[in-house]
């Protein structure tokens, strides 16, 4: 998430001074090639999109992890542990709408762009596309 926010922040800063990360327009494209429009809000890690008259909303989480190196013997002493925290460019989202099936989404992002898929429990697949400026 940090990498995503840094990239979005850099883009937003270049365009608007010291503004916060800007919302990104997204599309969920169904199998019939119909585009359902919505918005990704990086500042709150939220997504909203309208699909066939239903308003979906939910959150997304960016994959992160921690790596720890074990100490090595250096002379009579052990070197200290090294801890590294990393953030990937992969995210997962859960979107829900009253009266509609939930959408489970996975997407990759690069700066103000993202691409992936959202699926219903019945197996319907929507292509997830976001492209900001």
Written account of the structure:
- The protein is mostly beta strands.
- The protein contains 1 helix and 10 strands, in the order H-E-E-E-E-E-E-E-E-E-E.
- It has an 8-stranded antiparallel beta barrel. Strands 5-6 form a two-stranded antiparallel sheet.
- The longest helix is centred in the first third of the chain and has 15 residues, at 2-16.
- It starts with a helix and ends with a strand.
List keywords for this structure.
mainly beta; single chain; disordered N terminus; Lipocalin; 133 residues; two-stranded antiparallel sheet
What is the CA-CA span between the terminal residues?
Answer: 19 Å
Q: Give the oligomer, counting copies of the same chain as homo and different chains as hetero.
A: single chain
> Per the principal axes of the C-alpha atoms, what is the gross shape?
elongated
Q: Number of helical segments?
A: 1
How many β strands by DSSP? 10
Structural class: mainly beta
CATH domain class: Mainly Beta
Helix-strand pattern, N to C? Answer: HEEEEEEEEEE
Quote the average pLDDT: 83
Q: What is the CATH architecture annotation?
A: Beta Barrel
